[in-house]
Amino acid sequence: MAIRRSRSCCLAVLLVASLVAGAAPSAIKVACIGDSIAYGVGAIEEGHPGATYPAVLQTLLGGSYEVGNFGASGSTLLRRGSLGNGAADAYVNREQFVPSRAFGADILLIMLGTNAVNTSYTFAIVGFGADHRPRRGPPG
Fold first, then answer.
1. In terms of residue numbers, what domain contains 56?
2. Residue 43's domain is classified under what CATH number?
3. Which residues of the chain have pLDDT under 70?
4. 81: left (phi > 0), else alpha (psi -120 to 50), else beta?
5. Of 52, 30, 50, 51, whose CA–CA distance to 107 is shortest?
6. DSSP 89-129
7. pLDDT (tens digit per residue) in 50-68
8. How much is the pLDDT for 120?
9. Do the domain assignments include residue 117?
10. Is residue 7 part of a domain?
């Protein structure tokens, strides 16, 4: 039920955004950023890249939309901490972050937070608000 509600909500947001955008000469760009759910872990490794949620969304929306998959497995919204792999887990420190901004999306779908609830990150939760205050507003 929650998945159906979430899907309906996403489609409603996309519909409203497309109405606000008006008739554009080119495709409306939708950037899917986030963790392994956005990336499509499992589907890609099993040889089914068309089963990732960005690919399914592209199929549902059709040719008037261009959906970009900028998922990065293991990434978090937190800016501090690591799961011990030596890499910075914050999405803004992942290689997918720069191309996701360069994509020039009209609509941004964010799937982050699943990895941030790992108990290894409890120390990082304290600074969460301060870390993200400067990010509010349009990208700069």
1. 27-135
2. 3.40.50.1110
3. 1-25, 79-88, 116-140
4. left
5. 30
6. -BGGGSTTHHHHHHT--SEEEEE--TGGGSGGGHHHHTTHH
7. 888 899 999 999 999 999 9
8. 61
9. yes
10. no
What domain count does the chain have?
1
Quick check: is 12 in a domain?
A: no
pTM for this prediction? 0.65
Taking the C-alpha atoms of residue 13 and residue 17, their distance in angstroms, rounded to an integer, is: 6
Count CB-CB contacts under 10 A for residue 94.
21
The CA distances from residue 2 to 7, 8, 10, 58, 65, in Å, are 9, 10, 12, 21, 25
> Is 15 inside any structural domain?
no
Q: What is the dihedral of CA 117, 106, 47, 75, to 10 degrees?
A: -20
Residue ranges of the alpha helices (H) in the chain? 2-21, 36-39, 53-61, 97-102, 122-125, 128-132
Q: Tell me the CA distances in angstroms from 30 to 23, 49, 91, one per residue in order.
A: 16, 17, 18
**135: which 2 tokens?**
């990010």
